[in-house]
Amino acid sequence: MKVFMKTYGCQMNVHDSEKILGVLSTLGYRPTEKEDEAELILLNTCAVREKAEHKVYSELGRFKKRKGEGVFIGVCGCVAQKEGMGLIRRMPFVDFVLGPRSIYALPDVLREVKRGKKVVKADLDGSCITSLTVPILRQEPYRAYVTVMEGCNNFCSYCIVPYTRGREVSRPSSEILEEVRRLADTGYREVTLLGQNVNSYGRGLSEGIDFPMLLEMVHEVDGISWIRFITSHPKDFSERLVKAIAALPKVCEYIHLPAQAGSNRILKKMRRGYSREEYLEKVAMIKEYIPTAAITSDFIVGFPGEQEGDFELTLDLVEKVRYQGIFAFRYSVRPGTEAASWDDDVPLHVKRDRLIRLLELQNTITQEISSSYKGKTLDVLFNRWGDGKLEGRSRDNKIVIAPGPQSYVGAILQVRIERARMYELEGTIIKGGDA
Ligand code: SF4
Predict the structure, then answer these.
(1) Which residue segment(s) compose the domain that 194 sits in?
(2) How far, in Å, from the CA of 159 to the mean position of ligand 1?
(3) What is the pLDDT of residues 106-138, one digit of tens each?
(4) Residues 390-399: tens digit of each pLDDT
(5) What CATH number should be reported for the domain holding residue 356?
(6) pLDDT at position 127, please?
(7) In contact, 211 and 245? CB cutoff 8 Å
(8) Would you state the torsion angle of the CA atoms of residues 389, 393, 394, 399, taken in this order, to the nearest 10 degrees?
């Protein structure tokens, strides 16, 4: 049987789709890229902005015609959790709705659906984050995601995640280490530890562990060369963590540290739990211990009440930090969040203008940083090959392209950088750890 799956949103969703396809593989399903040959169509959805949610409904509309051919249609992810039965009422041809914490209930759900029932499974207290007994159909052979925790307790005033992914639950370190060992045994070189706020890992576990300790434990796993993690919350980004990153050679010098805004007034309204000064102190601390660290961030422009002066403080923060890159969006009202009750008073054209100005500034910085790589030598883990060229990522997460044989895929090699585009570097393989 074939399943066609479309995934929207963040790394958590991408990895959840790998888990869902793993569960389905035990039921005899295998993935297909061709939606018209699938017996099962699944959308793994994102609710972080209105636009993302609208995409789901227009996409579902396209699949409606397949219903007549005995095809089952399911919606997973954050829109599924947010809407539940409401989604089936709105789209009666949808057979089931599965929340992010109910992935392992899929076999039961499909059994019910095949008996003609409509099923909504959207528990937010699902305990099993990642099963060690069910396969995961990973997209890549050398780089893998490993969930260390689920959910978020921060309730930033604009964010829907705590409502769609539930309260923070950390996974026992023994399970994480077992998964990482198995990955190493099957040839994986890099793991990315995943969580909405990995810095609060360990809270609620009886083993008395925190994220720096987990990094040290994962670091001891033979066969894994590189360790990454995403996402951090600046308020929980400790000096202990920075020291651990600096001291552990396998931990890559790439840190995603979402600031969201540069104005204290707006940060307060967002309930981010830090001031711009505290944020800049964290950045200074990172640059002190890890001078080569690449930092990226998320930003929201046009937040309720944002004045021109507030926005200029965001621009100023971007100039001060000089991020390797940013993910920036216009504020989007999310139902059920605290901010949804506030007047969305920044006009759309002003939001658009601010987003353009912010991205223009960042693009200038990104290009300057990329250009500064020319002549440098970087370690690169190559994970793709095509047309005689290898593609990979450096430790600080830059995309690097270099000519070479397909046999180099999965290797960590040194590349001398000769050309620099905004988001891509190109160079020549000189030698490397694995060569
Ligand atoms: S930290 Fe804030 S923005 Fe991030 S997932 Fe949690 S509530 Fe959302």
Answers:
(1) 143-371
(2) 6
(3) 999 999 999 999 999 998 876 667 889 999 999
(4) 999 999 999 9
(5) 3.80.30.20
(6) 60
(7) no
(8) 70
For 120-155, the DSSP string reads EE--S----SS-SSS----S-SSEEEEE-EE--S--
**Last residue in a domain, options 121, 152, 186:** 121
**Domain check: are 272 and 200 in the same one?**
yes
- Given this model, what pLDDT does residue 434 score? 63
Residue from 154, 164, 271 to probe ligand 1 pocket by mutation (most atoms less than 8 Å from CB): 154
Cβ of 152 below 6 Å from ligand 1: yes
Q: Is 47 in contact with 53 (CB distance < 8 Å)?
A: yes
Pick from 39-53, 72-86, 241-255: least confident? 39-53
- State the closest ligand 1 atom to the C-alpha of 152, by its place in the atom list counted from 1: 6
Q: Please count the structural domains in the chain.
A: 3
348 within a domain of the structure (yes/no)? yes
Pocket test for ligand 1, best of 11, 167, 197, 200 (most atoms within 8 A of CB): 197
Q: Is 197 in the pocket of ligand 1 (CB under 6 A)?
A: yes
159 C-beta closer than 6 A to ligand 1: yes
Band the pLDDT of 50: cuts 50, 70, 90: confident
Q: What is the pLDDT of the chain when averaged over all its residues?
A: 95
Candidates 206, 279, 218, 300; CA nearest to 252 is 218
User: Which amino acid is it at 415?
Assistant: V
- pLDDT for the residue 129: 77
Residue finishing a domain among 347, 371, 395: 371
Whether residues 225 and 253 share a domain: the answer is: yes
166 lines ligand 1 (CB under 6 A): no
Looking at the structure, tell me whether residues 96 and 167 fall in a common domain. no
In this structure, the answer to whether residues 99 and 189 fall within a common structural domain is no
Q: Is residue 130 part of a domain?
A: no
pLDDT in tens, 344-372: 999 999 999 999 999 999 999 999 999 99
Residue entry with tokens 């690449």: 294
pLDDT, residue 279, reads: 98
Is the same domain home to 360 and 215?
yes
Strand partners for 428: 416
Which of 159, 270, 300, 334, when mutated, tests ligand 1's pocket best, judged by the most ligand atoms within 8 Å of its CB? 159
Checking if the pLDDT of 435 tops 70, the result is no
pLDDT higher than threshold 60 for residue 207: yes
CB 232 within 8 A of CB 199: yes
Instruction: Show the tokens assigned to 349.
Output: 């054209």
Whether 300 lines ligand 1, by a CB cut-off of 6 Å, is no
Neighbours of 256 (CB within 10 A): 21
For residue 252 and ligand 1, the question of a CB distance below 6 A is answered with no
161 lines ligand 1 (CB under 6 A): yes
Q: What is the mean pLDDT of residues 141-165?
A: 96
Whole-model pTM over 0.85 = yes
